[in-house]
Design a protein that fits this description.
By secondary structure, the protein is an alpha/beta fold. It contains ten helices and 18 strands. The longest helix has 13 residues.
């Protein structure tokens, strides 16, 4: 089969590799769509802790089951599935206390040590394949993995009904967090981004308040402020806007060596909560249900699809901030633009 391989940091190739075979507890999936996200760029740049090269990237994926292992009895060839890329050891103190996303042996398909879905086929453990309804659009459903991350973000937020939310970044994660906020009890949602096309995306998914500068808001502070950028300048701009007694969430992935400045006195004096959130934890099944129930507007979020031949171009466009969600569709023969942004 054909696959994109990150041979080492900063080097990739489109390569013929062996088509995977199912182990007893595995399923083989013909990949329909796989999203590109910031984690992929960190992996490509050698910035993601623990990545082992060579590696096939791609962790936001869906597809059709083509083979099941001998011990798999609840999935069949032809089933449509979404893939949870996270695997854990199941034995460490974090796994045993229900915090598997903190497992020191945590592995993300296409991220750390197991090949991902930027290929015609991918092998995944049965436990990581979540069955979809036959009518669910597999291309749109590749948003389920980031949606599961967003749900985990809300799981960890201390929150109340009727609070006001400020979200930095109108990329995929910012758009998902903004769409979930009303369901989590938000009275209002404001999204900040420097890119007007991305702010239009926020409006397209139902966000009422969009700004290029939070100073332009009539509101001075918010109960919940969420950074979905990982950009230090944005984080340092965002943290002071948290209302006394409010919460700041680090959702975006900053470089491991990055440092941000803030006032420890204010965190102390105003009892500011600062919380982090990492990947998926017991949220993938809920993401499937919420996606299929129409919790988000996927048609407003996916702007481009690329073939494997155009993967490098897709990565370049992602870095340039082109469009909205960019996808690789490994078994397609033509790249497409759905929104001319």
């Amino acid at each position: 089969m054909r696959a994109i391989v990150f041979d080492k940091a900063h080097e990739l190739s489109l390569t013929e590799v062996a088509t995977p075979k199912a182990g007893p507890k595995d399923v083989i999936i013909k990949v329909a769509a796989v999203g590109i996200c910031g984690t992929d760029t960190h992996v490509f740049d050698g910035e993601f802790e623990g990545t082992i090269y060579p590696l096939i990237p791609g962790h936001e994926a869906t597809g059709v089951v083509t083979e099941v292992g001998s011990d798999v009895h609840d999935l069949s060839v032809g089933d449509h599935v979404a893939i949870n890329p996270s695997t854990t050891c199941g034995e460490c103190e974090f796994c045993l206390t229900g915090r598997g996303n903190l497992c020191r042996a945590w592995n993300g398909l296409g991220v750390v040590a197991s090949d991902g879905a930027s290929a015609e086929y991918v092998s995944v453990p049965r436990a990581n394949a979540f069955k979809l309804r036959p009518e669910t659009d597999l291309n749109y459903a590749a948003l389920i993995e980031p949606l599961a991350c967003a749900i985990r973000g809300y799981d960890i937020l201390p929150r109340k009904m009727g609070e006001h939310y400020l979200i930095y970044g109108a990329g995929t994660m910012g758009l998902l967090m903004a769409q979930l906020a009303p369901r989590a009890g938000a009275a209002s949602v404001t999204v900040v981004d420097l890119n007007e096309n991305r702010l239009q995306a926020a409006r397209d998914v139902g966000v009422e308040h969009t700004l290029t500068n939070a100073d332009d808001s009539e509101r001075e502070n918010w109960d919940v402020v969420i950074d979905c950028t990982g950009v230090i300048a944005a984080i340092e701009n965002a943290l002071p806007r948290v209302k006394a007694g409010g919460t700041f969430q680090h959702f975006g992935v900053a470089p491991a060596e990055a440092k941000a400045g803030y006032s420890p006195f204010r965190v102390y004096r105003d009892e500011i909560n600062i919380v982090g959130t990492m990947a998926v934890l017991n949220s993938f099944g809920r993401a499937v249900e919420m996606f299929e129930a129409g919790a988000i507007k996927p048609e407003a979020m996916i702007s481009h699809s690329f073939t494997l031949d155009d993967y490098e171009l897709a990565l370049e466009k992602f870095r340039a901030g082109t469009g909205r969600k960019l996808q690789i569709r490994p078994n397609d023969t033509q790249s497409r633009v759905f929104m001319d942004l």
